[in-house]
Amino acid sequence: MSAQRPIQLYDFASSPNCQRVKVVLAEKNLPYETIPVDLRKGEQKKPDFLKLNPYGKVPVIIDGATVLYESLIINEYLEEKYPEPPLMPREPAKKAKIRILIDYGMAHFDSPYQKLRQELMKDAKERNQEVIDGAKKDLKNLLQRFEREIGDQLYLAGEFSLLDADLIPRFMRLEGFGVLPDPALPQLGKWLERMKQRPSMRAIM
Question: Which of 83, 84, 95, 122 is 20 to 30 A from residue 45's alpha carbon, by CA?
């Protein structure tokens, strides 16, 4: 019986959506090969790629006969198919709480996060400082929930989990945007430094 080929990851290196999948692949020590998709050249809109993902977005993984897209769903799949080491607790209530916090960190953060990102992508002289300050304030207010959740734990839900893996690319950007570190969010600052020390982060730093 021939060995199954490594997982294929259709990847754009600076995409946070691809990065969260790479963190989970690394945490689970799963061999994979990357197939670059240059978003700047519109390669994600080519017919061959759209057959894999009709949304025209990265990442896409191919694992044997399985083709999947949407990074959060890919990570859930990797957790279920390759359960060691576990990145989710066994208890349904704890699992559900992690999923709620992932949704909070992705969906609820998205409006001020995108507003800030779009403003910072402009030339310095064209940026609206009022919009930047407002988005940063909104993000810091939203981050207070994670500051409370982590408390004196090492990771966002206690043990390292999909919550940390899914959100770290976004938090790394919040650091780049000047939202973190912040004196009002000391535990999150320590968590961010702790995350950077994990071997799986080498794939995205």
Answer: 122
The CATH architecture to which 92-203 belongs is Up-down Bundle (1.20)
- State how beta strands 66-69 and 7-11 pair: unpaired
Q: Which residue has the tokens 């919040």?
A: 174
Residue intervals in the chain for CATH 3.40.30.10: 7-81
Q: Which part of the chain is CATH 1.20.1050.10?
A: 92-203
Q: State the CB neighbour count (10 A cutoff) for residue 140.
A: 18
List the alpha helices (DSSP H) in 1-128: 16-27, 47-52, 71-81, 92-103, 110-120
pLDDT per position as a tens digit, 12-62: 999 999 999 999 999 999 999 999 999 999 899 999 999 999 999 999 999
> What is the per-residue pLDDT across 105-134, written as a single tens digit (0 to 9) for each?
999 999 999 999 999 999 989 999 999 999
DSSP 62: E
Distance CA 64, CA 78 (A): 13
d(CA 83, CA 24): 11
The beta strand positions in the chain, using DSSP E, are: 7-11, 32-36, 60-63, 66-69
Whether the Cβ atoms of residue 152 and residue 158 lie closer than 8 Å to each other: no
What homologous superfamily does CATH list for 7-81? Glutaredoxin (3.40.30.10)
